[in-house]
Specification:
Layout lengths: L3 E4 L4 H17 L3 E7 L15 H21 L8 E7 L2 H9 L4 E5 L13 H9 L4 E4 L3
Parallel strand pairs: 1-2, 1-4, 2-3, 4-5
Helix pairs in contact: 1-2, 3-4
Length: about 140
């Protein structure tokens, strides 16, 4: 499935990436594939979890994804854009690279929820830039 894939983790950078990707999808007439990924080992959705049940991780990630989409919808950026969503479990970089095989463009934020504030790009972003099968756009927080 071609289109624009955007990775969302709930961070401000990923919401900026989602806004940019929505505007680009509208301009191109492309499908926007919004992807959120969680790891059973590390949950970075901003919601505290007191369990290791993967269904709880998936539910929290779904809530985060819905909130990010609602934020972008409130700006009017999703008007006229066909949007699909998916929540996946695994390594974010590897799953985004897999998605890039069937995409026209991959969009990510410059940094996610990792703790290294001084870095220009986060580890997932760096991995994606170096391994993607399609062009990558890295969006800085606006």
């Amino acid at each position: 499935m071609a289109g624009i894939v955007v990775g969302v983790d709930g961070s401000e950078q990923s919401v900026s990436a989602l806004r940019w990707a929505a505007q680009e999808a509208k301009m191109r007439g492309s499908v926007l594939r919004v992807t959120a990924i969680f790891s059973g080992a590390i949950l970075s959705t901003g919601y505290e979890m007191a369990t290791t049940d993967l269904s709880d991780y998936a539910a929290a990630t779904n809530m985060m994804l819905g909130a990010a989409i609602d934020t972008v919808r409130d700006f009017g950026d999703l008007e006229g854009v066909e949007v699909t969503t998916e929540v996946l479990e695994g390594h974010a970089g590897e799953l985004l690279i897999s998605a890039s095989k069937e995409s026209d463009l991959l969009v990510v934020g410059s940094r996610g929820r990792g703790g290294f504030v001084g870095l220009l790009m986060g580890s997932v972003t760096t991995y994606v830039v170096n391994h993607s099968h399609c062009p990558v756009v890295v969006v800085r927080n606006s």
